[in-house]
UniProtKB/TrEMBL annotation:
SUPFAM superfamilies documented for this protein: E set domains
GO molecular function: actin filament binding
First and last residues of every Filamin repeat: 22-114, 113-201, 199-295, 311-393, 396-488, 490-583, 585-676, 707-802
UniProt keywords, alphabetically: Repeat
SMART domains membership: IG_FLMN (SM00557)
PANTHER family, per database record: FILAMIN-A (PTHR38537:SF8), JITTERBUG, ISOFORM N (PTHR38537)
Organism: Plakobranchus ocellatus
Protein name in UniProt: Filamin-a
Length: 802
């Protein structure tokens, strides 16, 4: 090998020094040279040339292996030379293997070192084309379990869902062979109505990517603009559609419109460059995919600042010793702060909370036993962002990046020119390298504040408003939820003058209007208020000007749990916005919810893996489970004495992340990482998510309770007693609940004077029918209420005149 150094005006030119390899095989000289044998930049085209004896270029064999697959472009020339090029999209070392007449040439494999930031991957998964309706209505799918028997006799679990029209369906039906498929759907090990279901699959139902077509921006696109794709899956059979865009920067991908298996997708890369667009249907590339995209346009001008910190293992806290740590929680009142710690046996003790300067709080506690504790930090009786925390006493476990927790206003909202603050908790994650990046329209000034016991303070200051991404990695892996997209508003200015009055933060009820007032106090601007519910919904509040500069704001909550009211003046948050409010019982506490079971740690592919979420003592609320991994999972739930048992069946091996939320707040210890082993399907090219939500009933420890599931709309009420009442004469009617499931029947009657009727009797006639009789004493209108569970039956309340 010979190296030559070339310069122009005493400056090195690209690729210098140049390497040239000369070898002799079977009496013929062969030469390899070019910058592509040495190194380059990710996303750039690299090239090299191999020269052999005239007419023998076909005997040159080249293969490239590396951190990502590359397509090699080759041109053979009559003089025996071959020009080769490739475009690596991922940084790392690529091995270039060159053979001549089947023998490696001298220096092969050549190591080409590619530098750069690596590919950013943005994805969109659409399962509409894989849904199959079973043509039956089920009011509750939580405790349903489904399996499917293929034409070859294999039995596999399936994912069930309630379709948009209310019918029960299969969420992901992807048949691989023609023939009859038999679907069994069971509740408590008994077939539901019409089960088993039989599905005939022919050629047109089989999922095949070749039947799909793509048109639109598949060769070139514009950065920071809207580029449109139209994917027609009409002739593709049943299968899931996935879109992945890989390149030097992130991209926005959204479903704009879909109708009858034709999807219109809009995407926008953040920066110009070369991107790869992968479109798959039924796990196979559609014709033409992957597409090489040349993205032009102007750069976004976004800046990215990064700081790193090596986090050491937090010191162990032996039982009986005092531990302390510091949190910064802006916008809080020291008199409304409280902290408590719950031991593994469920015993809770208050912690000491000391007010330090600049919204810093010193929290001291003395745990008495070893094991995993739950640390709750509340303001005005509601958990602060990030709480509850898991806190190990005694032996510390090495959790990994998924155990890093963050929380604070700086991850939810921000303002230019001030410090936007949040807290980072790495104690349960073990030692590792923390990376914090802020990317957006202006350069961010980032500061980290060292604290004890695995807590870390973070703050950033930016000069321009807009959308910023806060990227948090641990050992080069994004923590759950990262990147956090934060809308930084302009200097709030006059918004600081605005005040809120008469806003109740607790004691609110579902479907009961809540009103408060907003006073501008001389400020000028447009008022906008939004209600954020525990399930993630956003609803605009009604605003009405009562007087000059004084507005009434009204909203109606539809869920139990902690809601947030955002109040903005001309897009800038007013002081203390967002305002947390509790709807329903304050007893609904995620800190009292725990999860256990082997399914949270390991499991088998194709088998049911179980875990139990214990809600006894936590009140009632919305319990949600999300499972992210290389495949979707068949997820079901059944009620047990102290909570809910979840079963999930993954379809391929790998690592899955299980997130458990109560009232939209992650429980302590969540998310859990489970390792699934065994053989199964090919992993999905994108991260798949399965989820289930359950509206829990209040449970007390050791006291079993039963949730009845009835459908009041299916109750039939008839009889002469509904038409007219006669004084001092017994009237009767019947209530038929045959098709209405199981629930509690409630019957009540009010006299014209507003008092309960003196004589009202309910008698069970058969297993599903009841006889109701009454005798009235007054003339006028009598009101008859009949409820099945919590809902009025059709026609109720009945107005009966005498």
């Amino acid at each position: 090998m010979r190296e030559e150094n070339y310069q122009i005006a005493n400056l090195g030119i690209r690729g210098s020094p140049f390497s040239c390899v000369v070898d002799k095989i079977n009496g013929s000289f062969i030469t390899a040279f070019g910058t592509g044998l040495v190194g380059g930049e990710s996303g750039e085209e690299e090239s090299f040339t191999v020269v052999a004896k005239q007419g023998t270029a076909k005997d040159i064999d080249v293969k490239i292996d590396g951190p990502a697959k590359v397509d090699v472009q080759r041109k053979d020339n009559p003089d025996g030379s071959a020009n080769l090029s490739f475009r690596p999209m991922t940084p790392g070392a690529y091995n270039i293997n060159i053979k001549y007449h089947g023998k490696p040439i001298k220096g092969s494999p050549f190591v080409c070192k590619i530098s750069g930031e690596g590919r950013k991957r943005s994805t969109l998964s659409l399962g509409n084309c894989a849904e199959y309706s079973l043509k039956i209505t089920e009011t509750d799918v939580v405790d349903l379990v489904g399996t499917i028997k293929t034409p070859q006799g294999q039995i596999e679990p399936i994912i069930l869902k309630k379709m948009e029209d209310g019918e029960l369906g299969i969420a992901y039906f992807t048949p691989k062979a023609k023939g009859e498929y038999v679907v069994n759907v069971l509740r408590q090990e008994k077939h539901i109505k019409n089960s088993p279901f039989r599905i005939q699959v022919g050629d047109k139902e089989l999922g095949h990517a070749a039947g799909c077509s793509v048109k639109g921006a598949v060769a070139s696109a514009i950065a920071n603009g809207s580029n449109e794709l139209i994917v027609d899956c009409s002739n593709g059979g049943y299968g899931g559609l996935s879109i992945a865009l890989e390149g030097p920067h992130r991209s926005n991908i959204d479903l704009f419109h879909h109708e009858e298996r034709v999807y219109t997708i809009h995407y926008g890369p953040h920066e110009p460059g070369i991107y790869i667009l992968n479109i798959r249907f039924a796990d196979e590339h559609v014709p033409g995919s992957p597409f090489l995209l040349d993205v032009g346009g102007n750069p976004s001008g976004r800046s990215r600042e990064t700081v790193t910190k090596e986090m050491e293992t937090a010191p162990a806290t032996p039982a009986g010793t005092t531990a302390e740590f510091i949190l910064k929680i802006p916008g809080t009142n020291p008199f409304d702060m409280e902290a408590s710690i719950t031991d593994p046996d469920g015993q809770t003790e208050l912690c000491e909370v000391y007010d330090e300067e600049d919204f810093h709080y010193l929290i001291k506690m003395t745990p008495k036993t070893n094991g995993l504790h739950i640390l709750s930090i509340k303001h005005k009786g509601m958990h602060i962002s990030g709480s509850p925390f898991q806190y190990s006493v005694g032996q510390l476990a090495q959790g990994g990046p998924h155990k890093v927790q963050v929380g604070g206003p700086g991850l939810e909202k921000g303002e230019v020119g001030i410090e936007n603050v949040f807290n980072i908790y790495t104690r349960e994650a073990g030692a590792g390298n923390l990376t914090l990046s802020v990317e957006g329209p202006s350069k961010a000034k980032i500061k980290l504040e060292n604290r004890d016991n695995g807590f870390l303070g973070a703050q950033y200051n930016v000069s321009k408003p807009g959308m910023y991404g806060v990227h948090i990695k641990y050992d080069d892996q994004h923590i759950p939820g990262s990147p956090y997209m934060v809308n930084i508003s302009p200097d709030s200015g006059v918004a600081r003058q605005v005040t809120v009055h008469s806003l109740k933060d607790r004691g609110l009820s579902i479907d009961k209007p809540c009103t408060f007032t907003v006073a501008f106090n001389g400020a000028q601007g447009h008022l906008h208020a939004t209600l954020r519910s525990p399930s993630g919904g956003h609803t605009d509040c009604m605003t009405n000007e009562m007087d000059k500069g004084v507005y009434a704001v009204r909203f109606i909550p539809k869920e139990n749990g902690v809601h947030y009211v955002d109040v903005k003046l001309s897009d800038a948050h007013i002081p203390d916005s967002p305002f947390p409010i509790m709807v329903g019982s304050m007893a609904s506490d995620p800190a009292m919810v725990t999860a256990s079971g082997e399914g949270l740690e390991h499991g088998k592919c194709g088998s049911k893996n179980k875990f139990v979420v214990r809600t006894a003592g936590a009140g009632s609320g919305l319990l949600s489970v999300f499972i992210d991994g290389p495949s979707k999972v068949a997820l079901s739930c059944r009620e047990v004495d102290d909570g809910y048992e979840f079963s999930y069946t993954p379809f391929c091996p790998g690592k899955y992340l299980i997130t458990i939320k109560y009232g939209n707040i992650p429980i302590a210890g969540s998310p859990y990482q489970t390792n699934i082993t065994g053989t199964g399907r090919k992993p999905s090219p994108i991260l798949e998510q399965s989820s289930m939500s359950v509206e829990t009933v209040e449970k007390k420890a050791g006291v079993p309770s039963r949730k009845l599931r009835g459908d009041a709309s299916k109750v039939v009420v008839k009889g002469p007693g509904l038409k007219r009442a006669m004084t001092n004469r017994v009237q009767s009617l019947t209530v038929d609940t045959k098709e209405a499931g199981n629930a509690l029947l409630c019957v009540g009657m009010i006299s014209p004077a507003g008092l309960p009727e003196a004589e009202l009797n309910v008698k069970k006639v058969t297993a599903t029918s009841y006889s109701v009789s009454y005798k009235v004493q007054e003339t006028g209108e009598h009101i008859l209420h009949i409820k099945w569970g919590d809902e009025e039956v059709p026609g109720s309340p009945f107005v009966i005149s005498t």
